[in-house]
Amino acid sequence: MSIKVMIVDDSAVMREVMQQLLAPHRDIEVVGTAMDPLIALQKMQRVWPDVILLDVEMPRMDGITFLRQIMSTRPTPVVICSSLTEKGADITLQALSAGAVEVITKPTMGLRDFLQDSAQEMVGAIRTAAGARLRPQPAAREPERKLSADALLEAPSGSLLNQRTTEKIVVLGTSTGGTQALESVLSALPVNAPGIAIVQHMPEKFTRSFAQRLDGLCAIEVREAQSGDRLIPGVALIAPGGKHMLIKRSGAQYVVEVKDGPLVSRHRPSVDVLFRSAALQAGRNALAVIMTGMGDDGARGLKEMHEAGARTFAQDEESCVVFGMPKEAIKLGGVDQVISLDDVPQLIMSWR
Fold it and tell me: How many angstroms separate the CA atoms of 310 and 315, rounded?
């Protein structure tokens, strides 16, 4: 059976380009196109799609409102098509938080190049979305009072911080479905959570907006990483899109290094790069969780961490949007235990 796709975009040219892009693929069938969500809803009553390709900014109803309506009435995998602008990044992240499965880059010009260069990206996103396991979104939670990193470092004697060292760290790797998963995990952590380094597969201009959005939702501080940033309690560092992030030991402290480099396991940032550096630099002082995502990035790095004495975990299939990365890590034998997404915050807080 073919994957039925509905294209919702206010640009007639873009709708035509997407149809041309998908036409050669026999396992994908475009069952309809629409210039806005209201027209799309009418058409979808006749043939409900398996996947929706959705623009964000459209007349009469924006993509996020449409997405939330779909997810509350008849959850359906959605792939967001967004321009990589700062404004577009923020809006797209709202869509991912609302339940969208994947993001693909929508160009502002050069549609011919888009057709030639992005065909496999779009087709892959649709196939991934068609197999996605949709998960109800957590209710927004009231964050605890946020302390700055400096305030945490200067906490007075007898505080929770001074009852533990800063030597133990947590590394998380995730891809498709990871924006929702990370929001669920990080927003559940208190201000004295261990220092966390994160690789989330995400385009370059999205990671800063993503970190800022999480920072506003969480008790801990969340920010896009820069070289030299320390991994300290109460702080989560997210690898910048388009850059690798590694852990380095500096005396009794851990810092991150952000650097250019070739794609590793088809990604930059790569979970394998983060995990391998944690294996080398932290060993038994590190805890790792490989989470929802397509492909195998992180599987080999997690095995190296396992062999170095780190504690290693994989998110279970039931709570994953896509079980690819955890499944590959389990097959390689680098996972100590398989756990639910809901158990990850408690696991992190037990790492003392």
Answer: 16
